[in-house]
Amino acid sequence: MTHSPLGARETVLGRVRDALALAPVPPVTIPRGYRTGRTLPDGERLALLTHRLLDYKAQVHACTADRTADVIADVLRELGARRIGVPDGLDETWLSRYDGEVQQDSADIPAPALDALDGVVTASAVSCAETGTIFLDGSPGQGRRALSLVPDLHVCVVDLSTVEAGVPEAVTRLVPERPTTLISGPSATSDIELERVEGVHGPRTLVVVVRTDV
């Protein structure tokens, strides 16, 4: 006598449903007593974030808000980036000193086409000094995930006012419903002989411009 695989499947699922109906599982209370409220002075947060990013092989430039455009232009010029992509909503003044080609990103541009860009400039949502992690959540000025992952150079602007000391404090400022990308230095991995290889899963070069008076 043979049995239909579909019939056997329904039999098993039926027994599972019956068991669950007979023995309902009580709701589970998950403790969420995370540490919150840790703070550090501006100078210490900047120093810690910079130390972590440099340790990850990123470049860091601290400047005042009125120097943002100059620093970005200098970075792009030094790295030979003549064609860059920008997300919708990026502050236009940040590129006022840049003399290369600027391409506005849109969902109509296929992700593989972004590889033709020399780099991308974005803003950021939140950063964590303790781990050197920058969070992008797709808000205006940050763009879609592909834009910050496909080009080989990512210039990311971070306002010191958005840098939190630790992970719980940083996560608290995020909107859970938004698509969040976490960046801790340039994309890198190690092969079986522990040789570091950069640019495998994202940009080979990460430059962070920290605005200290915003």
UniProtKB/TrEMBL annotation:
<dbReference type="InterPro" id="IPR003741">
    <property type="entry name" value="LUD_dom"/>
</dbReference>
<dbReference type="Pfam" id="PF02589">
    <property type="entry name" value="LUD_dom"/>
</dbReference>
<dbReference type="InterPro" id="IPR024185">
    <property type="entry name" value="FTHF_cligase-like_sf"/>
</dbReference>
<dbReference type="InterPro" id="IPR037171">
    <property type="entry name" value="NagB/RpiA_transferase-like"/>
</dbReference>
<protein>
    <submittedName>
        <fullName>L-lactate dehydrogenase complex protein LldG</fullName>
    </submittedName>
</protein>
<feature type="domain" description="LUD">
    <location>
        <begin position="66"/>
        <end position="210"/>
    </location>
</feature>
